Amino acid sequence: MDLTALRTAHPDHWSKATAIRALTLDAVAAAKSGHSGMPMGMADVATVLFEKHLKFDAKAPDWPDRDRFILSAGHGSMLLYSLLHLTGYEDMTLEQVKNFRQWGSITAGHPEYGHAKGIETTTGPLGQGISNAVGFAMAEEILRAQYGKKIVDHHTYVIAGDGCLMEGVSQEAITLAGRHQLSKLIVFWDNNDITIDGPVTLADATDQPQRFKSAGWAVIEIDGHDPDAIDAAITKAKSQGKPTMIACKTHIALGHAAQDTSKGHGALTDADQMAEAKAGYGWTTGPFDVPADIKAAWEAIGARGAGDRKAWEERFASISGNKQALFNRTLAREVPKKLSATVKAFKKQMSESAPKLATRAASEKTLEIINPIMPETVGGSADLTGSNNTKTTDLGVFDTNNRGGRYIYWGIREHGMAAAMNGMALHGGLRPYGGTFMCFTDYARPAMRLAALMKIPTVFVMTHDSIGLGEDGPTHQPVEHLAISRATPNTYVFRPADAVETAESWELALSSTQTPSVLSLTRQGLPTVRTDHKLKNMTAQGAYVLAEAEGKRQVILIASGSEVSVALEARDTLQEAGIGTRVVSMPCMELFAEQDESYRRKILPAGAARIGIEAAMRQGWDRWLLGERGKASKADFVGMDDFGASAPANVLFEKFGITAEAVIERAKALI
Amino acid sequence: MDLTALRTAHPDHWSKATAIRALTLDAVAAAKSGHSGMPMGMADVATVLFEKHLKFDAKAPDWPDRDRFILSAGHGSMLLYSLLHLTGYEDMTLEQVKNFRQWGSITAGHPEYGHAKGIETTTGPLGQGISNAVGFAMAEEILRAQYGKKIVDHHTYVIAGDGCLMEGVSQEAITLAGRHQLSKLIVFWDNNDITIDGPVTLADATDQPQRFKSAGWAVIEIDGHDPDAIDAAITKAKSQGKPTMIACKTHIALGHAAQDTSKGHGALTDADQMAEAKAGYGWTTGPFDVPADIKAAWEAIGARGAGDRKAWEERFASISGNKQALFNRTLAREVPKKLSATVKAFKKQMSESAPKLATRAASEKTLEIINPIMPETVGGSADLTGSNNTKTTDLGVFDTNNRGGRYIYWGIREHGMAAAMNGMALHGGLRPYGGTFMCFTDYARPAMRLAALMKIPTVFVMTHDSIGLGEDGPTHQPVEHLAISRATPNTYVFRPADAVETAESWELALSSTQTPSVLSLTRQGLPTVRTDHKLKNMTAQGAYVLAEAEGKRQVILIASGSEVSVALEARDTLQEAGIGTRVVSMPCMELFAEQDESYRRKILPAGAARIGIEAAMRQGWDRWLLGERGKASKADFVGMDDFGASAPANVLFEKFGITAEAVIERAKALI
């Protein structure tokens, strides 16, 4: 590259972009690790975007109507940190930049949501950012329909690399964006021809522009180092009426000895080469030293949106008080006051009528009463609407001609759905939930983990949660998936036993502000076990005594979901045989673990033998069966220890020995 | 549809295709569940494929040079079962077809590999079959390069639906196939415009032909009910020099009242509608009754390849004895005799030289000695070759001009890699292994589960297996992934402590015939703990005493991988303080669980306090810490209970308290 030509053609632009490159080199060198090449390659695109297009105010980073900027290629985190520091985000001090990748800094190796203002989502696992962005753009459409263009009217910009585009989830994302003509979504492809293993051509020969066009996108191809071309492309992208991919031909590690090589992807820390690169840029100050005039120019960019922001605040003040309150409540992730009473009334009705109902059907009934009072819920399913029972009467279907629709037909895209739901939750103002078969947790896993890591309350509705799924067979029958979600930090796994616990689980999931929820729901019908109405949300403590032992307590049966009624049936027989048997319903292990020790000991006292009952693998149960820190009991587990099989559900429960008879036999053997 | 016109235009074809439709309707009706519409829609394509193109011999279903037929749209399993029954596969009796979806039958709801001959892979989770197929086609290329065209020369045919094509993994698969110009891969797209939720257009508007072209495929668009067009398309597809997608415009549930509707996707069991459909087909026999002449015509198709097969056997007999032996050995998944001695020699060398080495580097060293003696290994990485240490000197790189290359640059496609590796393992003759960061287990999960379910020994090389990854931060640091793989049935999770255990783990993984392996390997250097050379593979028993307590045994430290050296360090101090401390290395919980109780009790005797040490979540450990069935001990665990953070690795171990000091403190508190 002829850097001199670039410098002389656009000197002001050049100095600003160079500040990003210099800070990147310095921070990576200080950390002795990181990814230098991407920020150096995309500095020009980012500079033009921030200078001329991105609607933001560095002093009001949470302004709800700001444009969103998502660095899907999260390894290039120094690009984002440089931009935030240079434009004057208050928390992104020079000290933080100097502490790149160090313990306690807000400048983690990859951008972590919640660490610093301006990080709209956690990225790093490739393909996630661009998929989150689809949710951001959908959220913008839905909220614009709800509040009008004067309150909600912003763009979502994404920088994605070859890694993001090779990941399968990106296909789910771009086809969703294309289907829904999300015209305010603009993706910059960092087309630098390099991946970690070498040239992109080693592994891929995709015609990306043609691919995006096949998904219904507009495509613009430019030189990613030409500020005029970048500016013109963004201007054009905003008026295409569909999502736009701007293919930016760039040089990774521009101006460095490692330019255009896979070495340039990583940490460029050689002092001589750094000096050489900076000399080539015409950058003469020392490490982390941005000349005052250049910093001032950047800060002016950071302040550019202040007027827009103030005007928005005035417009916001002009809408009705109710609308303002709703906007603020939903943005704060607060539930409406009447949620509690609504759920209580529903519980009472269920306890009294005691229906035999699959919990997926109970979930639908619950949503039928919740969705009308929570306009922030957005439901959906990955092409299993009728099976997941996620669609309620009043939601309306999100579509190009119905932007206010709150139900999304996600198609057969579990991963894209989960990632886009995260994007909606991150955008704010909406509470997304989406369904698939629990077994396909596997497909959605990368995004489910990120919801937990980001501390956002996405709700995953996982129906057909055991061999109770029946004939579809072991490919569709989860056995390890409860353990998988329970092993994941900051995740609530709710496995309700009946309609009452289902409603309680929904109340907790929608009240959660920082923890995603997995609702584990049955295909098959279950009897109501909570026939004694209680105002209190019993699920909130994770586990509770559903049926007390009569006489001397010899056995505690601990069960979740569909196996709670199995436990109750076993208890009847055991009590008849004079064996005092307590039944503990345990709809949420994580909430139980959060209780203090005295409550936990009250529910699971020492002395009695314990049997866990769950149509799933034992992993995760031993803590409750064997006790914590050496307070172990005699214990056994009735569940699965292998994959399921294809047969009617009742046959499977019989053949795999998850029956009251089996529980009774094991209980007798233990005591 | 004008069925009469179809019938009269091609009466012989029609009667054969109708046999599939009739058997499908009957089997689904008998099971009262299943998916009728897809087999009814794709019967014409399948009939022409089997009658005129597919190279197979129903009486020799395992003939290694057969064409592979993969039903990626696995819910249409009755299409496959009908074809196998009609063409005369001996195990696919009419009785089995009548027992569709019942306990103990080989006709599961979705095709299960191993249940019946002719089921080349387990499908149902969408997108897997088409992705397996890429591995099948790569395997064919590699083996053709190894053995020549007269021994290996076959096609891989796939039927995929809209579901398969919407799943992101299909993008990874088709871009891989396009990049490598896998010209013997032919995919039929069942283009019926219908998914479960309704018309495809509800959720997708992708121009699939354009999408496939962007990936480097040839595309042919036909009427999927016109046998001449189908025949011509397949003939053309074989000569395109690249993979071909044949877009087949079809009618789901052809001829049934539910034709062209989402209802047609499911179980069509209404007796009147069935009768009406059969009448429209001109099908007059009763349930499960295929007229003898039609069955005979199908059986002739099943026997069509017998001559080819015999000719192949003669050709095979003509190659060298060594080549034959190699072919047969690898097909039988047997390791070469010299593997054991080679590994032993390597272990001796490591024990003597006692290097400080990351286990990922130890893994590379092991592969350097194994790959030259096992020509069936195929290595690869999802764009982390230098980090996963998966590439050895002699492998060569698989490419269009080097079909014998045994290293695959998979690109940033963890899921596609895992699914394609499964395809290679299923094809037979190759032993695939592939690497990524352990955290990206999440991306590969759906295929990893299927390897376990199918009982195939795919090897997943998961490096950077803890916070030891360091600065890249929590998005790249696994904490729950050991638990995830351990919760999965039929999966060996090896977490070796040093180079010796790494070599032992590789020997076990490559000797496994029915169980996939996860190798959990460190980024960071580890000391050699097995300095005392033993011929025996100590990892084979899952856990063993690495250092015995001196004096009275008060504490047992149980550790895996990078924490074994932490345990040894803690033991030194505890012994100095007079606390008898045993250290158990536990590289594989699953193999330990397979040992008899007396061995398990010998390694973990009652009495002493136990501390588990692993830089991961506790879930899965309690069985070993608290004992089984009530034989609990005082216990504690030193590991992670939340996500990691971004900082240098040594800082993280210190901050998260996974140190010898922490172990010592906990041990003293327990006793």
From TrEMBL, chains A, B:
**Binding of Mg(2+): at which residues?**
162, 192, 194
Subunit organization = Homodimer.
Database matches in NCBIfam families: tktlase_bact
Highest lineage ranks of the organism? Bacteria, Pseudomonadati, Pseudomonadota, Alphaproteobacteria, Rhodobacterales
Q: How are cofactors bound according to the entry's free-text note?
A: Binds 1 Mg(2+) ion per subunit. Can also utilize other divalent metal cations, such as Ca(2+), Mn(2+) and Co(2+).
Catalytic class of the enzyme: transferase
Q: Which SUPFAM superfamilies match?
A: Thiamin diphosphate-binding fold (THDP-binding), TK C-terminal domain-like
**Catalytic residues?**
414
Q: What reaction gets catalysed by this protein? A: D-sedoheptulose 7-phosphate + D-glyceraldehyde 3-phosphate = aldehydo-D-ribose 5-phosphate + D-xylulose 5-phosphate
MF term (GO), any: metal ion binding
In terms of PANTHER family, this protein maps to:
TRANSKETOLASE (PTHR43522), TRANSKETOLASE 1-RELATED (PTHR43522:SF2)
GO CC term, one of those recorded = cytosol
Keyword RNA-binding attributed: no
Q: Which GO annotations describe the biological process of this protein?
A: pentose-phosphate shunt, non-oxidative branch
Q: What positions does the entry give for thiamine diphosphate binding?
A: 75, 124-126, 163, 192, 265, 440
Fetch the Pfam families from UniProt: Transket_pyr, Transketolase_C_1, Transketolase_N
Q: How is this protein named in the record?
A: Transketolase
Alphabetically ordered keywords of this record: Calcium, Magnesium, Metal-binding, Thiamine pyrophosphate, Transferase
Important for catalytic activity (site feature) positions? 35, 265
- What SMART domains does the record point to? Transket_pyr
The record's family statement is: Belongs to the transketolase family.
Q: Which residues form the Transketolase-like pyrimidine-binding domain?
A: 357-528
